[in-house]
Amino acid sequence: MKEKVKLLDDSLLRDRAYVGGEWIQAVSGATFDVVNPATGELIGKAPHMAAVDVEHAIIQAEAAFGEWSARTAKEREAPLKEWARLIVANASDLAAILTLEQGKPLSDAKNEVLFAASFVEWFAEEAKRTYGEVIPGSRRNVTYVAIKEPVGVAAGITPWNLPCAMVTRKAAPALAAGCTMVLKPAEHTPFSALALCVLAERAGIPRGVLNVVTADRPAAEEIGRTLTSSHAVGKLSFTGSTAVGKRLAAQCADTMKRVSLELGGNSPFIVFADADLDVAVSSAVFAKFRNAGQTCIAPNRFLIDASVHDEFVKRMIAAIGELSLGDGFEPGVTLGPLISEDAVQKVERHVADALARGAKLLVGGKRADRKGNFFLPTLMTGISPEMAMSCEETFGPVMGLATFTSEDELLQRANGTRLGLASYMFSRDAARIHRTSRALQAGIVGVNTGAIATEVAPFGGFKESGIGREGARQGIDEFMETKFICEAFPG
């Protein structure tokens, strides 16, 4: 590792993949660079794996499945609970690794690590609640029973924006259900996933139950096809863009593989005239600027009642002024870098497009004058539906405001997209809250809050924002099949 970070336990930072309980290089010996997005400096090199490496990982996972799935739920619970405990105990080191490769402020990184642990703890306990049922029979001396069984080897592909939490949100329910897993983390953030594997190993999760393969972007399609075409893999869980999710789902159709897809969002953030503006502004800052706007549930379209628009803008300018941009390791920083140069260029394109189409720039709107992938927190008004930022995820620290004057107009704008992951609404009118929250076409609705993600509630989208749910009891069901047994008894 060329860029060092002080860890209490240096052994958590690994530059080998984890397959079959072994720390290995790619068969080819190839590696790829992992860089710090705040400085551009090299952190280290990870194995650049290919199809042959993934096939080996699938074999290892398949070999481990029999013993792991035969364990009782309580027997699987124990090592998972210990994994959760170790994640919490090593939260400071995991957060440092996360900030080093992903860039988010260290305090945010630690919160993510604890969030990651919460999924492991939740699903360790949920394993004991995968109930079947006895169905009243329609014939004498016949019993109908429905039971749940693990789907087999599961594949996971995770993004870079929450490199710890997205690993455990997939791996924990899979392992709790009795599945084994082959997981490929994003090329920008392999070390967080590998650090979690160190702790899983220490927790007593058996060899081959959790396998992590790493690769740079050029190998992504080859690895995806290897996972989706394998008859040994019973399920694919993917978090990423809608375009890639569609391709993976199409590939899975050849083997009728089960899929969970948590895809893109274009979330509306709605402020009604009767909203508590202090709550709305603080929620907007949290939901939009957390992780520099790089979350799938970050609000992308701000729809503000025309009667409170100017006051909302005034308060938002003041709130943005309190943000502190910088390297995530710097004290007091609340806004880190974007993940890559490509990400910065996309944000620049969205801002330029909006301005060319008549938007007004109030704050920011350009790169920060410093080394790294930094973009200033930005506020614009006069956003219209045809602008790029209204149609695509910006995935950056840019707020674009539009106004509405009626509820019908609002709902038409809010629902006028093929994506439906999250929505936010702010009002003190109980009837309006009831009416609007149900009319919004999104899998998740935040009412008077910007903090909507939790391990105990189902997470997923409507329309082209995905298939299936993560978290909650639904999250473990995604990794199980229902088997019906018809038992006839003589007599």
From TrEMBL:
Molecular function GO labels: succinate-semialdehyde dehydrogenase (NAD+) activity
Active site (UniProt): E262
Keyword annotations of the record: Oxidoreductase
An annotated GO BP: gamma-aminobutyric acid catabolic process
The keyword Magnesium is annotated on this UniProt entry: no
CDD domains in alphabetical order: ALDH_F5_SSADH_GabD (cd07103)
Aldehyde dehydrogenase domain ranges (all copies): 23-485
Family: Belongs to the aldehyde dehydrogenase family.
Protein name in the entry: NAD-dependent succinate-semialdehyde dehydrogenase
Organism of provenance: Paraburkholderia phytofirmans OLGA172
